[in-house]
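Dear all,

This email documents one entry for the complex benchmark we are building for the journal club exercise. For each entry we list the sequence lines for every component of the assembly. Then comes the predicted three-dimensional structure of the complex as a token string, followed by one or two observations. Please use this as the template for your own entries, and keep the labels exactly as they appear.
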Amino acid sequence: MTNSHDIEVYVRFCETDAIGHVNNTSHFLYFEEARTKFFRMIHPNRQSSSSFILASIKCDYIEQAYAGQVLKVSTNVLYIGTKSFTIRHRLIASDSNKIIAEAEAVTVCFDFKNQKTIPLNRELRESLEEYMV
Amino acid sequence: MTNSHDIEVYVRFCETDAIGHVNNTSHFLYFEEARTKFFRMIHPNRQSSSSFILASIKCDYIEQAYAGQVLKVSTNVLYIGTKSFTIRHRLIASDSNKIIAEAEAVTVCFDFKNQKTIPLNRELRESLEEYMV
Amino acid sequence: MTNSHDIEVYVRFCETDAIGHVNNTSHFLYFEEARTKFFRMIHPNRQSSSSFILASIKCDYIEQAYAGQVLKVSTNVLYIGTKSFTIRHRLIASDSNKIIAEAEAVTVCFDFKNQKTIPLNRELRESLEEYMV
Amino acid sequence: MTNSHDIEVYVRFCETDAIGHVNNTSHFLYFEEARTKFFRMIHPNRQSSSSFILASIKCDYIEQAYAGQVLKVSTNVLYIGTKSFTIRHRLIASDSNKIIAEAEAVTVCFDFKNQKTIPLNRELRESLEEYMV
């Protein structure tokens, strides 16, 4: 059985647009909140000198969402490489369970001190594996 | 020779984050501004009943950007389908010409009145072709 | 004893800026969330034709806040007029109880159908009175 | 005759909300852009150790604004104190010259190195005086 890391977000009125639904740029706010909470959980002792860099993110928009809704952001790991890994965020309406959007984010391990990419260490790899789809 | 649709944006201080650079969510603000201006230009008589829906967007982060910078968003068309088309946004530092990020956005033609996807008409297709890479 | 309407918000990384703290524009996101939830509670049957308009808002910045913090937004009523009322939001660090910021928002009752300000009805006035400081 | 410091901003679609107009939180994005550009102009040699802190900001909402509009933000100085000064931002529709909103921002001079407020120096005072209403 697969673990997922789930959080809930509330759709703010300012996150909608004049069409009446959640604006396409707001989804990334929810994904970032999910990602930072997921990273804090799997890598609590992260040092400031080594960290994660977002290399790319793709969002597929599936259903509309609206102000006042509570959405679940469900995070899993899709792929673990040598120096990077790919996570998936599913944005889901908490009441209907409909999928609103789905994102894939490629994350790279980076040593800020020496300004270069670094391999995932074993501890991180094992934590990520628990969330593999 | 290829046309591109170019705009300039100013990086606001509130668009940066505590790492000191432009936050990953802010790039989508710039892409949306470029896209709406591009659509207004190629399709000035767009009726409210038929419109464009963003189906997906992917951003590759290449270089960091900073508060106070002026960035160019250069928009082109990558692909024209029957009911959808794909555009590319390049985010470029206006002074150094370095590419900061690159995005691909799949856009679908939609009839809001009848709530269904519709084919691109010839006029729109011809406008898009001028911006094909 | 005074009632207050309290919610909690999580400070997103994208709500900080390059100085390292929560950007001055982000406080208004938290106040809007608190205000819409407060209005939904005190006026659940609000019709779309009559609504509340924000006439002005003032924020005093007292302490800095940081990414990952949980903040309480505590809402009260300061003043009830004929056609408007003033609410106060206190933004408070949930762990230390330090006040981060304090805002006053003047809200006007508005009839969108007839495009004019309207008096507060008795039911609304009584609901607001319960939250008077 | 009074100088004012004027910039133009373009209203992004994502800055509107489901009511159809510019969301109340977006005005502060425009004011921040105007303020940082104003500060850069009057105080180009600002050292990182001494800087300006926003103590409070108040916005009066006067007219609605809409996606795609170009707005002028006109900045002046209302008051110069010993360690702080107050600036006024007027948000004006560029086509009709209607005032959309008006803000007052109290700014404090701060020495980050020694973590205390500091008096305005003469050079800054003289620059500010040129923009007094």
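Observations: Helices of chain C lie at 27-42, 122-129. Chain C has one domain: 5-129.
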